[in-house]
Amino acid sequence: MSMDSGLLALDDKSLPVLLELSDVLEIGVLTLDRDLVVCGWNRWLAAASDLPSDDVVGRPLLELFSELQGSAAEAALRRALDGSITMWAHRFHRFLLPFPAPAGYEQFARMQQSARIMPLLRDGGSAGVLVLLQDVTERVAREEELRAALHRAEAASQSKSEFLASMSHELRTPLSAVVGYMELLEGEMVGPVAPQQKAYLGRVKAAARHLISIIEEILTFSRVDAGKEEVHRELLDVVKLARDVEELLEPQAVLKGLALSVTLPDRDVALVTDGTKLRQILINLLGNALKFTDEGEVSLEMSVGDDDVQFCIRDSGPGIDAADLERIFDPFTQVDQSLKRRKGGTGLGLPVSRRLAHLLGGDLTVESARGEGTAFTLRIPLAPGARMPGSDLGATQSV
Amino acid sequence: MKIDELDLDALTELFNIGLHRAASSLSDLTGQRIIVDLPQLWVCPIEETHARLIELLQGDLATVHQIFRGTVTGDAVLVLQYESAARLATLMTDGEVAIGGRLDQSAREVLAEIGNVILSSCLSSFGDMLRVSVSFSVPRIHVESLEGMLRSLQVDNEDLHFALLAATQFRLSEEEVGGYLIIAVGVSSLTIIADALAAGEL
After folding, report:
1. What are the chain A neighbours of B79 within 8 Å (beta carbons)?
2. pLDDT confidence of A333, banded at 50, 70, 90?
3. Which of A99, A178, A248, B52 would staple A111 via disulfide (CB 3.0–4.6 Å)?
4. In the CATH hierarchy, which fold is given to the domain comprising B3-198?
5. Tens digits of per-residue pLDDT, A347-358?
6. Do the domain assignments include residue A118?
């Protein structure tokens, strides 16, 4: 018997060696003559089937296991007589010979098997069939457990996201009412309000708005996480979009005494993308930079490459240790917990931004070092979908 | 033996018939409808196969080899990209194997059987039509790079010089899964194939 990949079939002179090996390898070795009468039934087969060799050898296989008559197994055995080799993966056939399931695996009606069915040669001619049988019940059981665990985990994650999405909605609705009525009171629509009361109402309203924005963030995150966020692409001028974001955040920079420098191309840049999501990412990134920087500068620089538009947002804030760099994109993570208490926030801004960037076909990366500020780079492709993996391959291409 | 002496149209037809037999066996095995496109075929020296395939196949490949011997000797290989091999195994078993896109032991067994069905159907229909006898080895599955796969094309330490390269797509229901079929043969085998084709034995 040759052990290289050129093994074509086994000559019956090599059988004793194979039988010796089969005890060590724990495989079933069955040999049949040209009439499919059992010639060899090794110890493994006797133990697995509860049929001692003396009861089996000399009897036709199809009589011993009548359910094999007319089955694919019989066809494969007969093909081997004509020189064919057949592989049986348990996933397609479950078993070749109907043996009881091994102890401890009673959930299976039968022992799960993989098999090889090949010609047995004598003097170069076909003398019969050789079947090598392997018990794969334990492996199949393990895989089934794994699959069930995976389904459970997926279902749990899905229901968590659905719960979050609906809870966020339920929370936002009453808060909108709080803000609305607060505005009615503040506007003296229902009667005069003393200045002190007005100031307090303003604080309540600001706090409620802050709460709404946090809930909004959680809502977006759970929608993206649950795969329910849809992309609505439109043709837009990204330079104008960046200017809008700048105008929106400038008061925040002025309030903190920070310089906000924005460098944009001096021409329109047309892009087909989801403007709302791009705006949300830029607001998140610039807002974060302003929040965590106490002195110095925050900058936004936009450049247009061959394939993509890049936005680089830099700040002179505290920076992030190299070890924490990728962790900042994990949900509910703020690297410095004391900062979280001081600066507030859900820790969802960056994970949401990166997921949104991926939804738009782009990416969000970060470079930083402790004490040296942070730079985020957002890349959005110029032509969405044009460079989908594999799309440049021809019609007869492999997948 | 000159490559252009081969009747490529006749050879394509031969492949086409072989592939349809393979598809019908696969369909019996899985109960799924399988559609096969007309294969594209090249015959080229082994060293050129790299240049042809490198454009199309990157990363790890899952290959099923089945060596054949007889009047014609060579190595038949089903070549799939790792991810599509996992997808094929998943599709064929209704998601029971290749959990998480990994070619686990069961997925490899499934692919070996799929390869066995495709390669043996193709090779035996070749044998029948060309009236040459071939017998096959046990199919073997490997996960390797393109270079590794091409290096492993060897039978009895005889380097194989030519490859019949067939690219085709097969579709299972709505999903598209495609692969390459490579049949590498020695010069003498290619001469026998050319003679059989020339004799109009199809």
Report:
1. 398
2. low
3. A99
4. Chemotaxis protein chec (3.40.1550)
5. 778 888 999 999
6. yes
The answer on pLDDT for A167 being more than 70 is yes
pLDDT at A385: 45
Q: Indicate whether A59 pLDDT > 90.
A: yes
The answer as to whether A174 is a domain residue is yes
The ipTM, to two decimals, is 0.73
Alpha-carbon distance of B75 to B71, in angstroms, equals 13
Question: Looking at residue A346, what is its pLDDT?
Answer: 65
Chain B environment of A92 (Cβ under 8 Å): 29-30, 92-93, 110, 113
Strands A234-237 and A270-273: antiparallel
pLDDT tens track for A350-387: 888 999 999 999 999 999 888 888 999 999 998 754 33
Least Cα separation, residue A395 to chain B (angstroms): 8
Pair (A179, A278) in one structural domain: no
Same domain (yes/no): A46, A178:
no
- What crossing angle do the helices spanning B187-198 and B105-130 adopt, rounded to 10°? 50
List all residues 6 or more positions away from A288 whose beta carbon is below 8 Å from its beta carbon.
A349, A350
Tell me which residue in A83, A90, A143 faces B99 most closely, judged by beta carbons: A143
In the predicted structure, residue A268 carries a pLDDT above the cut 70: yes
Partner-chain contact B106 A5, CB within 8 Å: no
Least Cα distance to A105 among A136, A135, A133, A141 occurs for A141
Question: What 8-state DSSP symbol labels residue A52?
Answer: -
Domain limit, last residue, from A86, A115, A135: A135
- Are B106 and A399 an interchain contact pair (Cβ–Cβ within 8 Å)? no
- Which among B56, B104, B110 has the least Cβ separation from residue A89? B110
Query: What are the tokens at A230?
Result: 């849809």
Q: Quick one: A123 and A150 in the same domain?
A: no
| A115 & A20 share domain | yes
Q: Which of A153, A84, A135, A188 is nearest to B121 (CA)?
A: A84
Residue located via tokens 């996201």: A161
- Tell me the pLDDT tens digit for each residue of B158-173: 667 777 777 777 777 6
Tokens representing residue B49 in the block: 């196969």
| CATH number of the domain that residue A302 is part of | 3.30.565.10
Cα-to-chain-centroid distance, residue A332: 19
Three-state secondary structure call for residue B39: coil
Q: With respect to residue A2, please indicate whether it lies within any of the assigned structural domains.
A: no
Q: CATH no. for residue A88?
A: 3.30.450.20
Looking at chain A, the whole-number percentage of residues with pLDDT higher than 90 is: 33
Q: Give the domain CATH number at A192.
A: 1.10.287.130
Interchain CB contact of A114 with B (< 8 Å): yes
Q: How far apart are CA A84 and CA A58, in angstroms?
A: 24
Q: Minimal CA–CA distance to A222: which of A164, A263, A157? A: A164
Provide the domain limits for residue A20: 10-135
Instruction: Give the number of domains in chain A.
Output: 3
- A 10 A CB-CB count for A170 gives 10
pLDDT 10s digits, A198-244: 889 888 888 888 888 788 877 788 778 777 778 888 888 999 999 99
